[in-house]
Amino acid sequence: MSAMFVCRAVLISLLLTPWLAAQSNGGGGTTSTTCALEDGREVRLDYRPVTTKQEKIQNGKPWTPGGVPMTMFTSAQLTLGSSLIPLGAYTVFPIPARGNWTLVVNKNVTPGAAYDEKQDIARAPMETAQVEQPSEMLEVAFAHVGARCTLRIYIGKSASFVDFNAK
Question: Cα(8)–Cα(102) distance, rounded to whole angstroms?
Fold first, then answer.
């Protein structure tokens, strides 16, 4: 009888784990976008898909959609602007501005840690444009050509782009 009780307890905990995880991160899940390189290496970015009604984006401040930084995992050495990004995990912070955005890659991946500019390993201006049809939901995607992964971020009427180059 105790073996049956243990089996039921394990089954219930396995079924509840995804729900509890979603509750612990504010009820919002993450979405991923991936850039798959020809040689099998890849770059993945995880983010919270928020709406323009949920988020008030402040110019000049690192943005964390849903209060959580975007997280990048790379199995390829990358460059962003003139900076080299080694293999590993990083947090990614878009910094909105009126004319154009900046993208920051930071080495601090500690959950709940505040942004610390001293931990930045790369920073590059993003090409930014205004689009006619606004996007109410944050959309993040990679466009892939050769060894280049172009990160595209759309929210509201802003569309921002920046290139990561694989080494």
Answer: 51
pTM: 0.81
pLDDT tens sequence across 80-112: 999 999 999 999 999 999 888 999 999 999 998
Give the separation between CA 141 and CA 135, rounded to whole angstroms. Answer: 13
Strand partners, 88: 74
* Annotated domain spans of the chain: 29-166
